[in-house]
Inverse folding.
C-alpha cells in the first residue's frame, strides 16, 4: 500500500479565491488547438474549445445525462437506461441496451440498475459502463420465507463491457465484466483504470483488461490518507494521475457530515504497479468535485465543482505543469469555462462543424452556445408512449401508441420482447406533430405480453427528404 505521507513531497490546497476567476481570465486558458472538451448541459451534449472560443450544441433532443468521446470525436451517450452511439455531429448511429438495463420483475427479487457513466475506448469500438446490483438472499431455515426478517439485502457494484454499436452480453469473448470498483477510465484500447471501491479490503485503484475474466485484475495502490478515491484518470503522457479524493471532516468543522473532497494530482513513477506520489490538490470546502479529465498533451486538467449551497456547477480548466521531473504545483487554481455542465471529457478531436449551431463563447455577445436556428443537421427522434388503457386493449388485440414526430415522413413501429419481434405497423404522416397508431397484436403476441407492465418498441423513422433515425424505447403500459 502507498503511504501518502511517505511518498508525498508536496501538498498544496488551492483556495476558492484562486478558483473563482472572472471570465476575462479565459485568456489564460489553453490556446485553441485541434482538441476540445465535451460535456452535458440541460440534457444535451455540447462541445467547446478549451479556451471557450467556439462552442456547439451537438444534440437537441434532451434526455442525456452522460457522454464520452472517442479520439475521432464520436460519442457514446447515456439516454435514460440506453446507450446511444452518436456521430461527431450528433447523428444517432446506434441505440441499444445492456444486460443491466432491465427492470425489477417482482418485489424482493434481485435486480440491476444502470448503466451509468459509459466510457468509450479511444478507438471507439468498446464501452465500459458502471452497474449496481441489489441481491435479495433468503436465510436458510428462516420462516416465513420471503419476509423481511428472513431476507438479507446485498448491494454490489461493478463495470460491464460492451461493443459500442450493439447490446453485448457478458459472456461475449474478449469483454465480460469486473466487480468491486467503478469509475472506468481507458488508459488505452485494452486497459482501464478503475477506482471507487465498493467494499474493503479492496484497494483504491486497480488496472483491468476486458476479457480477462471477473476477478482477474492488477491491484495498484491504496492511499491511506484518503477516505476514498474515485473518478480516476491517467494523463496520456503518463506523468500524472488525478482522482477525486475525500477525507472525513474534523468534529470542529462546521461542515461535519459532508464529505471534504478535492481533486488530487499524483506524480506517476511509471505504469502500474509502480506506486504514484501524491503531489497537490485543487480544494475548496464549499464545493463538491467530479470528473477530472486531462488535456491530450497533459498540460491542463478540467473538472467540475458544484457549490454545496447554491448547487451551481462550474466547469474549470486549470494549468498543469509536467510532473516528470518531480511534483510541481500550478501557479493558479483554474478558470471557469462554463456553468451548468457535467461529465466533461477532453478529446484530441476538434470542435465539430455544426452550421446550425452557435460558435461564440458562452456568456458573451455574439454567441451564447445555444442554437441560432431551430433547424439542425441532426434529425430528432420520435417520442413514443402508450395510449390510454393499453394493457386492456392488448388483450383485445391492439396496442395503442401515441407518437410525436418532428417532421413529415414514414415511421415503422416494431413491438419486441427481448429480441423477439411480436408485432409491427408502418404508418405515414403528412406533417410534424402527434398521431395515434394502433399496432395489431396477434394471439401469440398477446400471450407473450400477458401480465407485463412495460413493452419495448423499436422505431425506424424516415423523414421526407431526410436521414433515417432508428432507436428503441421502453414504454410503460397504463
Amino acid at each position: 500500500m502507498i503511504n501518502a505521507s511517505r511518498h508525498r513531497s508536496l501538498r498544496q490546497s488551492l483556495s476558492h479565491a484562486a478558483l473563482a476567476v472572472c471570465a476575462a481570465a479565459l485568456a489564460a486558458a489553453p490556446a485553441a488547438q485541434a482538441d476540445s472538451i465535451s460535456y452535458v448541459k440541460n440534457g444535451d451534449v455540447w462541445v467547446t474549445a478549451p479556451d471557450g472560443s467556439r462552442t456547439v450544441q451537438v444534440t437537441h433532443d434532451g434526455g442525456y445525462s452522460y457522454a464520452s468521446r472517442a479520439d475521432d470525436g464520436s460519442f457514446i451517450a447515456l439516454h435514460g437506461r440506453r446507450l446511444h452511439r452518436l456521430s461527431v455531429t450528433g447523428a444517432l448511429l446506434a441505440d441499444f441496451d445492456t444486460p443491466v438495463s432491465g427492470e425489477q420483475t417482482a418485489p424482493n427479487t434481485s435486480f440491476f440498475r444502470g448503466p451509468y457513466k459509459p466510457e468509450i475506448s479511444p478507438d471507439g469500438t468498446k464501452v465500459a459502463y458502471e452497474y449496481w446490483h441489489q441481491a435479495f438472499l433468503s436465510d436458510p431455515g428462516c420462516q416465513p420465507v420471503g419476509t423481511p426478517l428472513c431476507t438479507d439485502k446485498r448491494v454490489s457494484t461493478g463495470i460491464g463491457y460492451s461493443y459500442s454499436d450493439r447490446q453485448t452480453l457478458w459472456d461475449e469473448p474478449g469483454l465480460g465484466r469486473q466487480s468491486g470498483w467503478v469509475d472506468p477510465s481507458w488508459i488505452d484500447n485494452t486497459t482501464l483504470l478503475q477506482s471507487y471501491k465498493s467494499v474493503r479490503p479492496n484497494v483504491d485503484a486497480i488496472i483491468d483488461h476486458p476479457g480477462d475474466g471477473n476477478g482477474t485484475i492488477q491491484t495498484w495502490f491504496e492511499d491511506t490518507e484518503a477516505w476514498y478515491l474515485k473518478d480516476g484518470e491517467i494523463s496520456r503522457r503518463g506523468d500524472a494521475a488525478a482522482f477525486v479524493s475525500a477525507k472525513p471532516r474534523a468534529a470542529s468543522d462546521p461542515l461535519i457530515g459532508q464529505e471534504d473532497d478535492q481533486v488530487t494530482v499524483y506524480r506517476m513513477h511509471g505504469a502500474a504497479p509502480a506506486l504514484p506520489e501524491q503531489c497537490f490538490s485543487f480544494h475548496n470546502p464549499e464545493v463538491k468535485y467530479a470528473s477530472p479529465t486531462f488535456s491530450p498533451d497533459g498540460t491542463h486538467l478540467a473538472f467540475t465543482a458544484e457549490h454545496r449551497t447554491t448547487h451551481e456547477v462550474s466547469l474549470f480548466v486549470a494549468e498543469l505543469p509536467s510532473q516528470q521531473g518531480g511534483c510541481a504545483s500550478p501557479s493558479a487554481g483554474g478558470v471557469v469555462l462554463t456553468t451548468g455542465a457535467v461529465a466533461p471529457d477532453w478529446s484530441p478531436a476538434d470542435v465539430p462543424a455544426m452550421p446550425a449551431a452557435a460558435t461564440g463563447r458562452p456568456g458573451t455577445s455574439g454567441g451564447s452556445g445555444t442554437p441560432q436556428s431551430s433547424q439542425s443537421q441532426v434529425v430528432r427522434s420520435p417520442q413514443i408512449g402508450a395510449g390510454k388503457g393499453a394493457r386492456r386493449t392488448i388483450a383485445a388485440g391492439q396496442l395503442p401508441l401515441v407518437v410525436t414526430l418532428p417532421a413529415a415522413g414514414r415511421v415503422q413501429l416494431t413491438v419486441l420482447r427481448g429480441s423477439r419481434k411480436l408485432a409491427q405497423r408502418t404508418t405515414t404522416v403528412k406533417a410534424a406533430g402527434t398521431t395515434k397508431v394502433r399496432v395489431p397484436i396477434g394471439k401469440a403476441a398477446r400471450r407473450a405480453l400477458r401480465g407485463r407492465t412495460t413493452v419495448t418498441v423499436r422505431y425506424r423513422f424516415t423523414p421526407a427528404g431526410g436521414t433515417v433515425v432508428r432507436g428503441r424505447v421502453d414504454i410503460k403500459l397504463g
User: Anything to note?
Assistant: Helices lie at 4-7, 16-19, 390-395, 443-449.
